Amino acid sequence: MAGRLIFLLEEPSMKALLDGLLPRLFPGWEPETHFKCVPHQGKSDLDASVPRKLNAWRIPGDRFVIVRDNDNAQCTDIKQRYLAICHAAGRPDTLVRLVCQELESWYIGDLQALAEAFDNPKLDTPALRKRFAHPDEWAKPSAEVARLVPGFQKIGGARSMAQCLQVEGNRSRSFQVFVDGVHRVAQEMGTVGP
Question: Which residue range(s) make up the domain with 111?
Answer without folding.
Answer: 104-162
